[in-house]
Amino acid sequence: MTxxxxxxxVIRSADCGNSPKNALVESLTIALLKRDAGAVLAxxxxxxxxxxxxxxxxxxxxxxxxxxxxxxxxxxxxxxIDHALTHGRAGxxxxxxxxxxxxxxxxxxxxxxxxxxxxxxxxxxxxRIEC
Length: 131
Prior knowledge:
- With 131 residues, this protein is of the alpha/beta class.
- It has helices spanning 20-34, 37-41, 61-70; strands spanning 9-11, 44-52, 57-59, 76-87, 90-99, 104-113, 121-130.
- Helices cover 23% and strands 44% of the residues.
- 28% of the residues are buried.
C-alpha cells in the first residue's frame, strides 16, 4: 500500500516458481518500489549499499531505511514485474510502475547476493526511466 492506504496491484513474473533466489530478488524489488522499509531491511545485509543510477550511494541499513521513509511514494497504481532472474550471486528484476494518473517508469534493479545460497542482498543498483 502507499502511504495514503490505497492498494497497489502487483503483477509478479512467472520466473520465480522453483527458484528461492529469484523470489528473493523479486520480493525485495517490490518492497523497494512500495517503500516498505521493514520488508527491505529483512532481506539485506547490515552493510548494504543501494544506488539509484545518477544518485548517491546509500550505505548501511539506517541510510536505506531513512531514504525509503523520506521518499515514500503516493499514487502508485500498479507494479508489473516482467522478469526476475538470478545466476550465482547476481540477480536482476525488470518491469514497470504505473501511477494513478497514468504516468510511470520502467525499472531494472540489479542485486548482488551476499552468499551463493541467496539468503540476503548486499548491493543493489536501481535504474529508472520515466515514461
